[in-house]
Amino acid sequence: MPGPLRAPDRLAFLLALVPYLQDHDTVTVTQVAAHFDVTPERVRDAVTLIAVSGVPGATSQYQHGDLFDIQWDEFELHDRIVLTHLVGIDDSPRFSAREAAALIAGLQYLSALPENADRAAIASLMAKLTRAASAPPTQLLAENSGSADALALIAAAVRADVQVEFDYLNGEGVHEHRFVDPLRMESVDRDWYLRGWCHLRAAVRTFRLDRISQLGVTDRPRSAQTGARLPDRLFEPSAHDLTVLMELPRAALPLLADYLPELVSDTVADQAGGDRCRVRLRLASFHGLKRLVAGLPGIVTVIEPAEARAIVAAWAASGAAHYEADV
């Protein structure tokens, strides 16, 4: 049986009760008492007090719109609490409709990922954001991650303590069949990566999920190498990497952060008056270099080696030729 509340506890109870009632359109006295571990009588007294509380208006006198209000018939006849008017809380800063819509879209994306099992909590948070916005948020539907099925399979393999197998398109454009002990899933922007012990290479490797096909869970137990130490960085340099010198605006340097650029030198200001710099990158292959240049069109310039310049120029010319053929 809950005991009497001290004065500080009564105040804390009242301060917590109003947001709780705001989050529940209709709730019984018994439910509130069970939630806060107090007696139903304490709840009825608190609700009665709230209903005659408020914030005085400009005249420093309490008018009808300055007080909390409830549906008294529901409260007195059916022991149900329904707030019909709030004060004070409505004056606090709120998310705009656009801000709430952006947050809700992000939560929709997170709820689609398999590791977020408590989708009820996410749904509850989205409902609170909707109610607390200054205006009804725009109805948005975030596109489900295309990697959701792969993430679910890998999570199942980790729980079963077994290997996964798949066909992988490596940086040189070659398909290889791999057996991997999954160790960790990581994301960079919109891309997901599987990190694990590769039995083909006998080492820890990183795999992009969008290059994986025919993914399956095997009955092979994960090896003792499962406890191998993962490198701190997602991308580690290799002795077989291609080293490329590039030039780009200094302001664009953060765009290459994932490639661990080594600053070589500053150059003169460009025609637009901005500073340019040269950096050295390590890439797995020329295929990866073409993907990098395509992702930063007009921003990066390949300086050397000459073979890299020639390959990128030929690739760009080939692409342009397709457009000319369509004209």
Automatic annotation (TrEMBL):
<dbReference type="InterPro" id="IPR057727">
    <property type="entry name" value="WCX_dom"/>
</dbReference>
<feature type="domain" description="WYL">
    <location>
        <begin position="150"/>
        <end position="215"/>
    </location>
</feature>
<protein>
    <submittedName>
        <fullName>WYL domain-containing protein</fullName>
    </submittedName>
</protein>
<dbReference type="Pfam" id="PF19187">
    <property type="entry name" value="HTH_PafC"/>
</dbReference>
<dbReference type="InterPro" id="IPR051534">
    <property type="entry name" value="CBASS_pafABC_assoc_protein"/>
</dbReference>
<dbReference type="Pfam" id="PF13280">
    <property type="entry name" value="WYL"/>
</dbReference>
<dbReference type="InterPro" id="IPR043839">
    <property type="entry name" value="PafC_HTH"/>
</dbReference>
<dbReference type="Pfam" id="PF25583">
    <property type="entry name" value="WCX"/>
</dbReference>
<dbReference type="InterPro" id="IPR028349">
    <property type="entry name" value="PafC-like"/>
</dbReference>
<feature type="domain" description="WCX">
    <location>
        <begin position="257"/>
        <end position="317"/>
    </location>
</feature>
<feature type="domain" description="PafC HTH">
    <location>
        <begin position="9"/>
        <end position="131"/>
    </location>
</feature>
<dbReference type="InterPro" id="IPR026881">
    <property type="entry name" value="WYL_dom"/>
</dbReference>
